Amino acid sequence: MKPRIEQVMKKFADRCDYLEVHFEETEESRIGFSGPRLSDLGRRLDFGGNVRALHRGGWGFASFNSVDRLEEFAQYAVDQARTVGKEASRLAEVDPVVADVPVELKSDPRDVSLEKKVEILRAYNERALSFGDGITSTIVTYFDRFHKLWFGNSEGSLVYQERVDIGGRVTPVATRDGDTQVYNVGFGGSDDFNVVKGLEAEIDEACEVALGKLEAPKIKGGEYTVILDPRLAGVFVHEAFGHLSEGDNVYEDENLQKVMKLGRRFGGSFLNVYDTGLDRGLRGHLIYDDEGVVTEKTYLIRDGELVGRLHSRETAGKMGEKPTGNARCLDYRFPPIPRMRNTCIAQGEATFNEMIAGIDYGVYCISASGGQTNGEMFTFTAANARMIRDGKLAEQVRDVTLTGNVFTTLEKIDLIANDLAAHDGGGGCGKAGQFPLPVTHGSPHVRIRNVVIGGE
Amino acid sequence: MKKIIEKALSRGAARAEVFYLNSLQTEVSYEAGRLKELANTEETGVALRLVKDGKLGFATTTKLTDLDRVVDDALATASCGDYMEFDFAVAGDLPDSRFFDSAIAELSIDEMMKHSEAGITRLLDYEKNIQAESGTSRNMQTIQVLNSDGVDAEFERTQYQFYLQGRLVEGTNMLNAGAYSGGTALDVDFDRLYENAVAEFKRARTNVDLATGKTTVILTPRAVADIMLTLNLAVSGAYVEQGISPLVGKLGKRIFDERITIRDDGLRPGGYRSAPFDDEGVPMQTTTLVESGVLKSYLTDLRTARKLNHADTGNGLKAKRLIGSKELGKAPAPEITNWVMEGGEKSHEELMSEIGSGVLVDSIMGLLMSNLIAGEFGGNLAYGLKIEDGKTTGRVKNAMISGNIYELFKTNIVALSRDVELAGLLGGIGTHWYPYVVLRNVTIATKS
Known about the structure:
The structure holds two protein chains of two kinds. Chain A is an alpha+beta fold. Chain A has nine helices and 25 strands. Chain A folds into two domains: 2-215, PmbA/TldD superfamily (PmbA/TldD fold); 222-453, no CATH class. Chain B is globular and about 75 Å long. The model of chain B has no long low-confidence stretch (mean pLDDT 94). Classes of the chains: A alpha+beta, B alpha+beta.
């Protein structure tokens, strides 16, 4: 594919300020069970590309499957950029990269037969289905993807990368008298097929939790002191702060820039938050982002103060900051935009026992069903929860959805534990129609005061 | 595409079915009030299902220069697949409905820019500090379904989408408001959309307090669309078959207030997901799901229709669940098309003045994390207004709404509005038509 990229550069690069080409070939295998039925078994081959042109601040973008019509699409992208552009192009400067980055795998999913994969997932499925009375069904998903990515731009970058993404979920479903409760075991990774193995104990536990939720009362709505476990705290930092840190949120909005000024205090001096692409094996691992920028570990909050944000070359350029290697696209159908990688609350010093001892009446929120933000407010849902009474874990409760304000909730974290753990589920992050992008999040246990929880 | 079927049969498949999609989408987008990007997305791909030794195989490709590969992949999946429990569609009459609007096909980039620019100007004329975004797109699709049992059907469809979205940041107060429209026919009153977006801003500039408790709520059509995600899942033949829908065994039984009538209308003129046939080649139709509160039908594809001994409603679609865009890689499964709920007697303005006090709910964030299949919904009021003396008095923030549709829509309905309006589905894709719905005794938890 590289000669084709060079050919486009030769012909069109001098007609615009900046030009880039992506090609991508993805092979996917997918397995799904709905109850006893093997409901999804498929293979996908996806091959396509795009041309993105920048001229005087305006972008033209053309994505395509008909690769034989490459020049036509390149012409389109360049013409459209010239139509749009009326100002100055400002991309943060980076060194051009020429590199071949084959993926280094501990265990290649392509070496495992489809039969074997089905067998592993079927065994999990049958384990959950035969767990006992009340587990009436299951939802099981699995995918593995092998991406080959070619990228080149008019500054001389020419990069071939391979990436692997593996993930899925085993979800036991408990039903009784028209009520349905679930709890899932998610798994994922970027260099090892074995992440799918050894989930038996977690699946048994998930069955117990789902059955328990059938009996558990709904939580009473109101304000609570909460402890989030590392999985839920990871979703919390992703929703409550990660999205706010994405450069495209801020770079055109002067009012928001006033609020998101570097140095602003967001939390206690013990609060540190970072986003990193460096952790091999996690789904949020990257070598080069989708603009060919080398990835890094980016601190967002240090000692409670805002110190950085997540950038593409454009958002960094316009804000006069350094690019961070966060420009990512779901696939070749989309342009790269600032996205998270592995977003974490850093290690603290407290212990779980210290945290819980100080709570007379509160909630221990465990694992996540997901989260969302609209820029100002965020919500996230605990997949399981227990009340805390007089400093001790008490009865299981359900339907625990927490909400808060992105600017003020981090201030209410009063303790961070020393048990940091990053977790990969089988889902992903959605933004601007690009869903599900593989991301990771991590955190130690955190305690937060005065959090609103919905409910009757 | 016949070539693929021939290849599959010659390689030992007993039967085969090909779905072909070609689309060309053009979009103009504005960011921070300025033209930002022009984008063109060309997609071409095929999905192949085949039966070998009684087992079903499935594969897709967008690399049409290598058609042997998709046949290989489908055969490989068939070797460890499940036994096929249904037949492919048979050739028959298809509705002659057309969902091709030349006004969309001929929509020029200049016109698309004008629609977005005019909206942005209106928002900025109202308040220059709004960060305004807008996008207008047109999409032209050709969809073909062929199988070895004689189905050979094709249609062309046009779709447009328009959004206008603004964000106003004042200190750490952030207000998002906007308007959305979409469909297969360009019969949209842009001026009214602009006006609605400005009105949304105007009504929410002041924040007001609300105490935790039960209150009367008026759901806008958009909020109804959000909450209907529960029923969207529950009527799916797949969840009924799996036994996890709360509507199992409820056909013919009353599930909602008798004023509730809901149809899934795959043939609705202008509907975003309208089509003459579904992705398995089965005719689309108008299906009454709930009539006067009584559950009348589930939504099915070929397989679940057979399994449930239910009529095939023509809902075998490759849409992404809940989000709705075409996903080639997904096998057809029962999915909603366009939903329409019948309205009531009075206008929503009349209903609002009759309420006296309560909360107007327009947009709920975090709904997707609810236990939707059980009918439960909850989330933060992303856009909610307090109502006092029949008028909205300001925005309610930090508030969580929660409830169960099978309780609230059965016992708590006060009224439905006469006006039934287009509401975009969560995520902005798909079109549904709902009235405003007034509910009593809905729980809203707020910051004390």
